[in-house]
Amino acid sequence: MEGIFITIEGPDGSGKTTQIELLREYLEKKGYDSVVTREPGGTVISEAIREIILNPEYKEMSYMTELLLYAAARAQLVNQIIRPALIEGKAVICDRFVESSAVYQGIGRGLGVSTVYEVNNYALGEVKPKLTIFMDLDAEDGIKRKKNQTELDRMEQEDIEFHKRVVEGYRKLAELYPERIVPIDATLSVEDIHSRIVSEVEKRFFK
Ligand code: TYD
Asked: How far from chain centre, in Å, is Cα 108?
């Protein structure tokens, strides 16, 4: 597969959307057709699964159901959108991917990171990101930013301890896989964050 596959991770409210748009513009300037997508979602079926997962009324959802629904949404996105785009040589930027499951379900819910990767291998096949940007922000700050915006979904309604485990989980993964997962301080200015992301992209894809 010739294309470029980059994922952006981070706690709720860490400013991923702004950076994804800037990264897309940068990759277009480099001559890449770019596909921006998000998880859970990005296809009609995956968006339908997203509605189930995030519905605040479904308080009885078991953690394993949650893990499998995220993986199901991902399998559809990979097969319908990401793999074909990479085969065509496009750049794909995905807002959240398998590391979200590793930290939210694996660590936040306590299902275990290795279980999460095992389940997700079925959904991913050989489609793996070469670079994962982690927008590093304390859980309290992320939740504060979100609360100002909208009504909270089922995941965002979890208590602060859950969101702290998520952020710690991301930090641990970044330590474990430093060649792929790059933490960037999300409190920096939009421009500073963008230029750090660009330098990581150049190191990996344009050298
Ligand atoms: P979303 O509104 O996309 O969050 P954000 O705007 O912060 O990116 O909601 C997705 C929620 O689902 C978010 O709380 C993280 C969670 N999530 C998981 O728990 N596991 C996963 O595998 C994915 C992709 C997301």
From this structure: 15
- What would the DSSP string read from start to end of 127-148? ---SEEEEEE--HHHHHHHHHT
| The pLDDT of residue 178 | 96
Tens of pLDDT, residues 34-72 = 999 999 999 999 999 999 999 999 999 999 999 999 999
Q: What is the pLDDT of residues 178-204, one digit of tens each?
A: 999 999 999 999 999 999 999 999 999
Q: Which residues line ligand 1 (CB under 6 A)?
A: 12, 16, 38-40, 70, 95-96, 100-101, 104-105, 155-156
Helix (H, G, I), strand (E, B) or coil at 15: coil
Q: Best substitution site from 104, 111, 135, 170 to test ligand 1's pocket, by max atoms within 8 Å of Cβ?
A: 104
Strand partners of residue 184? 135
Distance (Å) from CA 40 to ligand 1 centroid: 7
